[in-house]
Design a protein that fits this description.
The chain has about 80 residues and is mainly alpha-helical. It is built from two helices and two strands; from the N terminus they run βααβ. Helix content is about 55%, strand content about 5%.
């Protein structure tokens, strides 16, 4: 009997990667990501400049991709279909 997967981030219909979340946990992850990004912009841009903010943003993006990789469908190139 196959086990049903409950993905937080479904694969995109066209292209490679993930789409918008389809579970509340995914929306929480996205909300935290946006809040941390905005907080970093408010805190880092005036005090440390754009270089620090770019490094901080890249780190947050790597963390988001890691969460999507673990809790989302396996990404592959898709051309539509089902």
């Amino acid at each position: 009997m196959p086990v049903e997967q409950n993905y937080w981030f479904p694969a995109k219909r066209y292209g490679w990667g993930w789409g918008l979340p389809n579970a509340w946990q995914g929306w929480v992850v996205m909300t935290i990501f946006v809040c941390l990004l905005l907080g970093g912009a408010v805190e880092l841009l005036p005090s440390r400049g754009p270089g620090a903010f770019v490094a901080y943003s890249a780190f947050l993006c790597v963390l988001l991709v890691a969460v999507c990789w673990v809790k989302g469908e396996r990404p592959s190139w898709r051309w539509g279909g089902k």
